[in-house]
Backbone:
């Protein structure tokens, strides 16, 4: 467990166990602490299905009464806000990417969709049955894989054909809007009073999206300088790899 996406998948796995009271993550040391009732074997078996190299370090009784402090209402509101922002830019970037001929914009839009799926699954996990969560996760994961593969096929088609260079002004302009959207998400996440590690992980997750936006802006500049579509296709391919990786991570949740 070494990234925010995997941290979310672990949380959603454990959400199916009513005996789990609190979970605490240390992403740097790759450690997870779970405060629970009953034996740890069912929890360990469930986490092991994610294939993240799970190993039980220790299991000790808790000292004193269990104190659970949550602020689910504010966290759900925040997740809805970033979900809507990511969903809007998924539609905007994919639409303008197809019109301008930019695979970088299309791929960035799919990356926004991947984020929306993660946020949506996190919201769906509240009050839902484990079987329903697994079904939705599987559908989301397979849909994302199909979109990523369609993106790769389009990249190959453009590499082997005589495609005109994409509209670099659209690439740069839309990516700057997406950068502003991700910056807004980052502001909202930093503004929250929640001290939960999962919210901090979401902040890190959103920060990485900003680098993707900057990559597409850079590709637009290189398209302008070189007059070639190659920079756009390279950036698009790199982002599609991230999208595919996210889809495979979501599928782990459905097992």
Residues:
């Amino acid at each position: 467990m070494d990234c925010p996406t995997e941290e979310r998948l672990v949380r959603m796995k454990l959400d199916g166990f009513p005996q789990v009271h609190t979970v605490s993550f240390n992403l740097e040391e790759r450690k997870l602490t779970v405060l629970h009732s009953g034996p740890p074997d069912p929890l360990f078996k469930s986490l092991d299905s994610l294939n993240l190299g799970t190993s039980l370090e220790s299991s000790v009784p808790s000292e004193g009464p269990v104190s659970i402090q949550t602020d689910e209402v504010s966290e759900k509101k925040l997740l809805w806000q970033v979900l809507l922002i990511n969903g809007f830019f998924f539609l905007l970037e994919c639409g303008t990417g197809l019109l301008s001929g930019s695979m970088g914009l299309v791929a960035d839009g799919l990356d926004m969709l991947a984020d929306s799926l993660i946020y949506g699954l996190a919201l769906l996990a509240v009050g839902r049955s484990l079987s329903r969560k697994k079904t939705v996760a599987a559908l989301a994961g397979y849909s994302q894989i199909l979109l990523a593969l369609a993106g790769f096929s389009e990249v190959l088609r453009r590499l082997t054909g005589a495609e005109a260079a994409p509209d670099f002004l659209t690439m740069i302009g839309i990516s700057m809007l997406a950068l502003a959207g991700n910056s807004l998400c980052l502001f909202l996440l930093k503004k929250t009073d929640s001290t939960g590690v999962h919210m901090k992980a979401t902040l890190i997750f959103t920060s990485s999206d900003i680098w993707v936006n900057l990559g597409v802006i850079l590709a637009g500049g290189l398209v302008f300088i070189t007059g070639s579509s190659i920079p756009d296709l390279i950036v698009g391919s790199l982002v599609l790899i991230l999208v595919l990786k996210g889809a495979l991570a979501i599928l782990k949740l459905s097992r």
Remarks:
- The chain is about 70% helix and 5% strand.
- Residues 65-70 have pLDDT under 50 and may be disordered.
- Residues 128 and 171 are 40 Å apart (CA to CA).
